[in-house]
Amino acid sequence: MFFGNYIPATAVLVLLAGLAILAILDVRRREVDGSATAILGAALAVILVREPLQASQWIFGFASAVVAFGFYLERGRRGRMGGGDVKLIAIPAFVLGVIHPLLAVWGVFVLVFGAQMAVRLIHTLVTRADASTVPEPLPHVPAIFAGTAIALLSTGALALL
Q1: CB 93 within 8 Å of CB 19
Q2: Would residue 155 count as lying in a domain?
Q3: Number of domains in the chain
Q4: What SS3 class is residue 80?
Q5: Which long-range contacts (CB under 8 A, 24 or more apart) does 27-34 make?
Q6: C-alpha Rg value of the chain to the nearest Å
Q7: Is 54 domain-assigned?
Q8: How far apart are CA 138 and CA 118, in angstroms?
């Protein structure tokens, strides 16, 4: 229990494993595969339907996913985010929102952007060391994975699994 909410342990572990795999693929291909995102979402849906979640957890999960998707959609429309990242963000936002809505806000908005800035800093330092490289767009899924994992670790939710 986390603030009175049941923690869907299997869903959290599948989410982290799926995001780790998608992060590796995003780094290699510089694109988020829509079918892999759909498979992760479907797997988590099947798992969560079988969990003893309260009605409020479903509501908070959906609300968190809608808010995160809307926020990322606006960033995508401005060219700051790829379409695959926009579609993917609803999945960790939903799972974090099921655990606690503030956890979703903390993980998806604050830590994802913090992790993205850290990745950009490292990328900048590396490209400055090798001036022959042309800057490429950075993959965002590693930041989504890091933000989700850090949110779960920093709140102690993973320790309760």
Answers
A1: no
A2: yes
A3: 1
A4: coil
A5: 27/139, 27/141, 27/142, 30/136, 30/137, 30/139, 31/82, 31/84, 32/82, 32/83, 32/84, 32/85, 32/87, 32/88, 32/141, 33/84, 34/84, 34/87
A6: 16
A7: yes
A8: 11
Q: Which residues of the chain have pLDDT under 70?
A: 1-5, 107-116, 119, 123, 126-137, 157-161
State which amino acid sits at residue 13.
L
DSSP letter string, 89-121: HHHHHHHHHHH-HHHHIIIIIIIHHHHHHHHHH
This prediction has a pTM of 0.81
Domain-located, residue 19: yes
Q: What are the structure tokens assigned to 132, written together?
A: 């022959």
Q: Is residue 4 part of a domain?
A: no
Domain boundaries, position 140? 9-160
